[in-house]
Amino acid sequence: MILIDPPLWPARGRVWSHMVSDVSYAELHAFAEELGMPPRAFDRDHYDVPSELYQAAVVQGAVPVGCQELLSRLTRAGLRRRKVVRESLRARSAVADASGVQ
Fold first, then answer.
1. For 35-68, what is each residue's pLDDT tens digit?
2. Is 85 exposed, middle or buried (0-12, 13-18, 19+ CB in 10 A)?
3. 55: domain range?
């Protein structure tokens, strides 16, 4: 199922939604292509959808959900991909803490 959260996320002079699938990336990419989204709009595990396309996504079949539900369903589906930078920083911090190095 394709899910979309409300357009609440400001960036680059626009407001954005996140669009995900709780089934597969293949389903998400096919839906985004049908919606006319460029591949560059895909970010790790979701598409950034400008507010102008929100209603078109819903009409096409995306199910509107809140931000927390979107994240929860993406995670439960095993499709959540966290930023590598955060994980890398956490790992370095854990090593530094364990070794006593600041």
1. 999 999 998 889 999 999 999 999 999 999 999 9
2. exposed
3. 2-99
